[in-house]
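Support request from a user on the community tier.

User writes: "When I paste my structure tokens into the form, the page sometimes reloads and wipes my input. The last time it worked, I copied everything first. Here is what I submitted, just in case something in the input itself triggers the reload:"
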């Protein structure tokens, strides 16, 4: 069985990491898996790239220009919207022709157009589409943030100037997606049960098969290790309680840095003795821009893509905090737990599926910096972190290991191929 995994990037972003890990998991499980990307970052022979470095960006640039014009020249929501009006025709590639199953992942920002996806569906090959966010179930947005329009029909979009209209860009793209989905029957897979419920409530995906399979993680790489050695490697202090926050761009408002900063202020006010004992490790782009306003000593680190360094960063921490305002099934929480680090996050999206409250971490009330501060204190000063650590590792091993995830996908592929042969 030959499976083609399609994603915009090979390594950049959570979806790319998850797709790459799935390819490795499937190959280890005996499936011939390859990856087709626009942006290739390694020399892995299992990964094929599209086009030359400049030519491959033309679809991205054209889509951004069209969105920019529809936003009346504003950049405010320029990267919150995708309309998939331009992209590659991957059906002409050798990788596509050789594939028995086509597995789409995050294909935005000029990778695939809606017409291109329609052509894939018309090919007759079984198509699986893993949803790393809500975009396949909405018109143009990746985060609904409380908007329920997608449950019936997208229009009057909050992301468009003046709140949009009944015939705005979101309504136009919605109709295009409806036409696209009539050309085949992809199986949609969500990484969390939360997103599965959201997708099943979409008016766009009504009648389509939707199920949930989590992202995999290599527990041979992400595993517990010496904290002292990790801190020495990362040049972090040995004598502090370290709280780790990881984000590709620290200043991304959706990742909740403002809530973390507010919680730290409240924690320092309630427990001033922690000011000398505690430190905050900020790993990601623009980390130095926010570190100066924190009440605890902070250690800003640039974003890391190397897995071995990431493992050391996790092992360095006493706890990991991700106060995101909207999440599917965060790879970072899974990685931290696999390394034996208790985690803290808001009760939103798939986070409560990963963190079992007061068993392997702490789930704080949504957008509640007071509860976030309570969770930090409980994890650092009151809980038995050794027991939490063991429970975190056990949760990952039982639910997110490469073998268990690859087995579920392999069974799905085989089922779809059997259905195809039966129809023939």
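"...and here is what came back when it finally went through:"
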């Amino acid at each position: 069985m030959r499976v083609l995994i399609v994603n915009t990037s090979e390594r950049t972003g959570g979806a790319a990491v998850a797709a790459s890990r799935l390819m490795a998991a499937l190959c280890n499980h005996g499936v011939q898996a390859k990856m087709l990307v626009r942006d290739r970052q390694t020399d892995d022979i299992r990964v094929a790239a599209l086009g030359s470095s400049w030519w491959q960006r033309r679809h991205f640039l054209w889509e951004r220009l069209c969105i920019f014009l529809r936003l009346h020249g504003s950049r405010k929501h320029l990267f919150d919207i995708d309309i998939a009006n331009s992209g590659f025709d991957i059906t002409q590639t050798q990788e596509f022709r050789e594939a028995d199953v086509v597995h789409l992942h995050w294909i935005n920002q000029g990778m695939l157009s809606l017409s291109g996806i329609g052509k894939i569906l018309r090919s007759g090959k079984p198509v699986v589409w893993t949803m790393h966010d809500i975009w396949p179930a909405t018109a143009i947005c990746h985060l609904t943030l409380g908007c329920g329009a997608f449950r019936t029909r997208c229009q009057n979009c909050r992301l468009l100037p003046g709140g949009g209209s009944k015939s705005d860009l979101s309504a136009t793209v919605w109709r295009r997606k409806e036409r696209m989905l009539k050309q085949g029957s992809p199986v949609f897979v969500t990484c969390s049960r939360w997103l599965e419920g959201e997708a099943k409530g979409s008016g766009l995906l009504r009648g389509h098969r939707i199920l949930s399979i989590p992202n995999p993680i290599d527990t041979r790489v992400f595993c517990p290790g010496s904290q002292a050695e990790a801190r020495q490697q990362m040049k972090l202090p040995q004598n502090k309680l370290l709280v780790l926050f990881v984000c590709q761009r620290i200043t991304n408002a959706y990742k909740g840095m403002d809530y973390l900063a507010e919680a730290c202020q409240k924690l320092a006010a309630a427990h001033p003795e922690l000011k000398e004992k505690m430190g905050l490790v900020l790993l990601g782009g623009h980390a130095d821009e926010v570190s100066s306003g924190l009440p605890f000593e902070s250690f800003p680190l640039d974003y890391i893509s190397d897995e071995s360094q990431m493992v050391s960063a996790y092992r360095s921490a006493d706890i990991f905090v991700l106060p995101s305002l909207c999440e599917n099934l965060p790879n970072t929480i899974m990685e931290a737990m696999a390394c034996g680090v208790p985690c803290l996050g808001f009760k939103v999206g798939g986070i409560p599926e990963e963190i079992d409250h007061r068993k392997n971490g702490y789930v704080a009330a949504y957008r509640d910096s007071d509860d976030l501060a309570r969770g930090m204190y409980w994890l650092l000063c009151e809980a038995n972190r050794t027991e939490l650590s063991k429970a975190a590792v056990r949760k990952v091993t039982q639910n997110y290991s490469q073998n268990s995830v690859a087995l579920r996908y392999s069974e799905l592929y085989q089922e779809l191929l059997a259905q195809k042969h039966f129809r023939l």
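Agent notes: The reload is a front-end session timeout and is unrelated to the input. DSSP finds 15 helices and 13 strands in the chain. The longest strand covers residues 241-249. Escalated to web team.
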